[in-house]
Amino acid sequence: MNYRTITDQLDFPEGPIAMPDGSFVVVEIRRRTLSRVSATGEVSIIAELGGGPNGAAIGPDGYCYVCNNGGFEWATGDGGTRPIGQAVDYTGGRIDRVDLNTGEWDTLYSHGGDVRLKGPNDIVFDKEGGFWFTDLGKRRDEDMDIGGVFYATIDGTHCERVIHPLITPNGIGLSPTEDEVYVAETATGRVWSFEVTAPGRIAKQDFPSPNGGSLLAGVPGFQNFDSLAVDIEGNVCVATLMNGGITVISPDGRQVEHIPAPDIYTTNICFGGEGLKTAYLTLSGTGKLVSTDWPTAGLPLNFLNK
């Protein structure tokens, strides 16, 4: 792949959104902001959110909805910048809602029912206008949280944990027909598929499934999964850590291909450009947003591309 650098001035970017005007909305997790990158690479701050803004998506009202993980501690060394655990000033996870025109924001959810959000990570809207999001949880010196997947509405009245337990759930996406929701686990290097029966509802598989889902694919060796996007053919494109790049998994899980990228912290992918044939990757360790031509068009996102 020939990667073109749009900017290398970001502080652990994630959650890229290729906007219709040619600019990009990204989170900068370490900088604790929602930021805008112009088509020519200039970076400006939309909102200072604090905590750890992590995943982002445009909702049916035009607002940007941000998964905020509450904050990380950081280390810098070989491989660039990396998160190393729960921040000292961590105050809990939440879903933030941002007006992209003014930068004004509020917190929509800090709980899903009686469950406190711990480390919301990635987010996707369905055609009904609700959103699925992962809660990876937080890691501390002696223990870590068990994660899950939530479904919520934008009016602030409903946020519910639907899938649990999961081990570090990270990337999330919907199939082209929205009858499957895909979830990538970071630590296990696995992608799970869950049958969607109605907005925010799944048909759970029986034992021995550990979480009610079907295993779509897993990868061997020392590589972890991060956020993901789905292409027009239903392939699941998962950002891959340590073995930096994108792992492309066919809808039936039978074909798994790794496309290398020059950063062991390749954290996310989105599609944009003419016909959604350009892939945009966040190379977080080195603070870059890059682009490359992609062999398959991306799946249009609800309320952004259609």
What do you see in this structure?
This protein has no helices and 29 strands. The chain is mainly β and about 300 residues long. The strands form eight sheets. Strands 18, 19, 20, 21 and 22 form a five-stranded antiparallel sheet that branches. A four-stranded antiparallel sheet has the order 1-29-28-27, with no helix packed on it.
Topology:
Elements: E1 4-7, E2 13-18, E3 24-28, E4 33-37, E5 43-48, E6 53-58, E7 64-68, E8 72-77, E9 80-86, E10 94-98, E11 105-109, E12 111-112, E13 115-116, E14 120-125, E15 131-135, E16 147-152, E17 159-166, E18 169-174, E19 180-185, E20 190-198, E21 201-203, E22 214-218, E23 224-230, E24 236-241, E25 245-249, E26 256-260, E27 266-272, E28 278-283, E29 288-293
Antiparallel strand pairs: 1-29, 2-3, 3-4, 4-5, 6-7, 7-10, 8-9, 10-11, 12-13, 14-15, 15-16, 16-17, 18-19, 19-20, 20-21, 20-22, 23-24, 24-25, 25-26, 27-28, 28-29
